[in-house]
Amino acid sequence: MIMVSSPDTETPFQISISDDALSSLKERLALTRFPDELEGAGWDYGAPLDDIRYLVEYWRDGYDWRRWEKELNESLRMFTRDVEVEGHGALNVHYVHERSTVVDAVPLLFSHGCTSQCLSFIELRRLV
C-alpha cells in the first residue's frame, strides 16, 4: 500500500551538481581502463568497446553539464515529497509536475529511469 503524505511535504527541487562532483567524475572517467575485446563479437558479450570508449569520452569532455542543469531547472517544475510505502517507510520521491492545458484532462504519471526502449517524461514533454 502506498500513501502520499500531506501536501505540505512537497518541496521545490532544483538540480545542483557540485563542481567537486563533476571534477571527480571527469577524473574517474579519465582513469578508465578498458578491457580487450573479442574480434567480431559485436553485441554478443555486451556493448562494443568502441561504443563504450565514445561514451566515456563524451561524458568526460563533450557533455555540457551546466547547460543541461540550467535548461532542466528552467523548463521543468520539479519537486520532491515523502511517500509512505508499506514495509519500507517514507521514500523521498522526485517528480515533475506539469499541468495540462486541457480542462478535466486525465492525470498521467511518468517516472524517469526508463531505458531508451520507451520515452522518458522529458522526451514526451518535447513532443507536445
Radius of gyration: 20 Å
Shape: elongated
Mean pLDDT: 84
**Biggest sheet, open or closed, and with what strands and sense?**
4 strands, antiparallel
Helix vs. strand class: alpha+beta
Helical coverage, percent range: 25-40%
End-to-end CA span: 33 Å
Number of helices: 4
How many beta-strand runs?
4
Order of helices and strands: EEHHHEEH
Runs in which pLDDT lies below 50 for 5 or more consecutive residues are none
Share of residues in strands: 15-25%
Descriptive notes:
- The chain is of the alpha+beta class and about 130 residues long.
- Helices cover about 35% and strands about 15% of the residues.
- The chain is built from four helices and four strands.
- A hairpin with a 3-residue loop joins strand 3 and strand 4.
- The relative contact order is 0.16.
What are its keywords?
128 residues; alpha+beta; four-stranded antiparallel β-sheet; 4 helices
Topology:
Elements: E1 2-4, E2 11-12, H1 19-30, H2 49-62, H3 65-75, E3 78-85, E4 89-96, H4 121-127
Antiparallel strand pairs: 1-3, 2-3, 3-4
Quick overview of this protein structure:
The two termini are 33 Å apart.
